[in-house]
Amino acid sequence: MSDGASTKHLDSLWFQGVSLGAVALVATTALAFAYRTAGPAIALAEARDVAASLAQVLPENFHDNDLLADTTRVDGVDGRPLTVHRARRQGEVKAVIFQMVGKGYAGPIRLVMGVDLEGRLTGVRITGHTETPGLGDKIEVARHPWVHSFAGKSLEDPVPARWAVKKDGGEFDQFAGATITPRAVVQAVKAGLDVYAAQRAAMLADAPAANGSPSE
Predict the structure, then answer these.
(1) If exposure means fewest CB atoms within 10 Å of the residue's CB, which of 77, 112, 177, 198 is most exposed?
(2) In a 3-state reduction of DSSP, which class is residue 104?
(3) Which regions of the chain does DSSP assign to beta strands (E)?
(4) Is-annotated flag, keyword Glycosyltransferase (predicted)?
(5) Closest by alpha carbon to 99, among 115, 78, 88?
(6) What is the pLDDT of residues 50-92, one digit of tens each?
(7) Nearest Cα to Cα of residue 101 among 76, 118, 123
(8) Per DSSP, what are the bridge partners of residue 102?
(9) How many domains does the chain have?
(10) In this structure, is residue 35 part of a structural domain?
């Protein structure tokens, strides 16, 4: 290759490299701008989804505060921090809501549960799982009414020994071909009630906040 041809070849490679770098810079800048622009909207949508999940475990018109804003932190399972959302009516706490995680057949099962001042469940909803479609996914309220069976239950009703699926001598139904999944949910809900019993004072101890603002 002649010196002239070599120079043209190097110039071409240099130009291509600069061009690719410029394209990458423009693309990165555009993505960053899009994220900054869409970020608040995405965060708002996620907050609305969380708020909707929290409200689903409460009776209708049970609270008038902002569940996302009115929170506290307590020691959960194995001492891990647990975020607790408080449901208030006219400034008085009526129930608390928090998340628990069970070990399902295919992975973690995440749920939210509401507990009133007497320690009774106001509701339970599954918020995330990877269980088998058509079997384990019956824990979803949209697939099966099974999760409604927790409403009104407490550590005394049924007694602790009956906090299990029927196959294990307990109170709660299992699904045909899928026992591990409902067992995991029952155990997670029972563990949540145990946390509430142990941390009730800390969950409820704060000044009234009629406007839903969190305590300091």
Answers:
(1) 177
(2) coil
(3) 71-75, 81-89, 92-103, 108-116, 121-128
(4) no
(5) 115
(6) 668 899 999 989 999 999 999 999 999 988 999 999 999 999 9
(7) 76
(8) 109
(9) 1
(10) no
